[in-house]
Amino acid sequence: MTRRIRPATAAVLAALLMIGPVAGTTADDSEDIIKYRQKAMSSQGAHVSAMSQIVRGKVSYTDHMKAHAVGVAGVAAHVKSMFPEGSDFGVTDAKMAVWENWAGFEKAADESREAADALVVAVDSGDEAAIGEAFKTLSQSCKGCHEDFKEEDD
Amino acid sequence: MRARVWWGLFLLVLAGWRGAVAQTPVAPELLERGEYVVYAAGCISCHAGEEGESEHLEGGRAFNTPFGTFHAPNITPHPEHGIGRWTEEQFRRALREGVAPDGRRYFPVFPYTAYTRIRDHDIRAMWAYLSSRPPVARPSLAHGGAWYLQLPLAMRLWRLLHFSPGPWQDDPDRSAQWNRGAYLAEALGHCGECHTPRGLMGNLRLDRKYVGTPDGPDGDSVPNITPHPEDGIGKWDQDDLAYFLESGMTPEGDFTGGIMSEVIDNGQRHLTAEDRRAIASYVLSLPPLADEEALGGGE
Fold first, then answer.
1. Residue A81 belongs to a domain with what CATH number?
2. Which residues of B lie closer than 8 Å to A, measured between beta carbons?
3. What is the number of structural domains in chain A?
4. Residue A10 has pLDDT above 70, yes or no
5. Which end of chain A is least crowded, N or C, by CB within 10 Å?
6. Is residue A20 part of a domain?
């Protein structure tokens, strides 16, 4: 005789499964999440800064662009998940606006991801002008998001 | 009958002539240069509506200072609410002397202590450009300055102590690039209004030029931009700073937010690459200064 899962159990299991991924991040210590996202965002900055040297013609490592662009695009896809509810508590430069205006933050994060993806496409095309433009758009989106959602550090 | 026709023709010609006088065409080069100077002078960040995002300079933005709250006025050519009834000479006087057409002295929230250094030909271009813009019927808001600022002699006394009018004078011992950068930073860009700490009377402490302040506009701290290797931007080179003024990106790959982001979008980004390099050349030539520990500078 097969044991039937009772509807109530099924509901609890389903609920657990649904909140699973969210619980996984919010269960992490808020301080650790902040540290993690700062490192992840610093890596974004390091890639963008390195790319800027290539785009500005300071170094001729044009064949490195792909690696940097892919790196930025990969992390950009995860930005929203790095700001779970409750991760405003600690030493963070994130403004409260991230959570107070979550829709706006999501939009900004999506735009950054799209800009990063577009840069990968431009790099693949090999068109220098397109790369320059796409890089400029990505920079603008980084700046735009920081303007609204990140405290100035000095 | 014939006389009437002649009269009609005469009036038509007269009307045409008057129309032509009223719309004396301004040289397009002058308007173009005026727009450039307006970008370089950072007019837009303060005057572009309440949020700084209007495409017209109708004012309204509030500035909360230790001396009260001030509002950027309407500087569109609206005859009633803007500067439409001003003459060019009155406009020049506002910038050069910090005096309004009605004779009142401006509060130094309006950076006339910097704008006084703007050269006449640039003021002329600014005036031509601003006058060519569409008028916006938005009343300027009254200032909420502290009571002692209303005293008849307050501003005159302040000016006596902290204001020396006159256009920028080049330093013949420096390069043309440095002098251009100094003019752009000091006269037009008025970097010091935010980056130089203020004394008790709201005056800029020029011995601490560009060292930053923990309590800048909007309550944010303003960074040290002297070439101090640790506290300032001493590790940036000229290209880094010029690129920052174009893109908002620091050499570390961080992006500036807040007011500086607006300063870039509404001004610096529109300058020529040579002008941004000139500003960088000037700023990086200044004496490196450490943050002020006593005042909590730094963090």
1. 1.20.120.10
2. 212, 220-224, 239, 243, 247-258, 260-262, 264, 298-299
3. 1
4. no
5. N
6. no
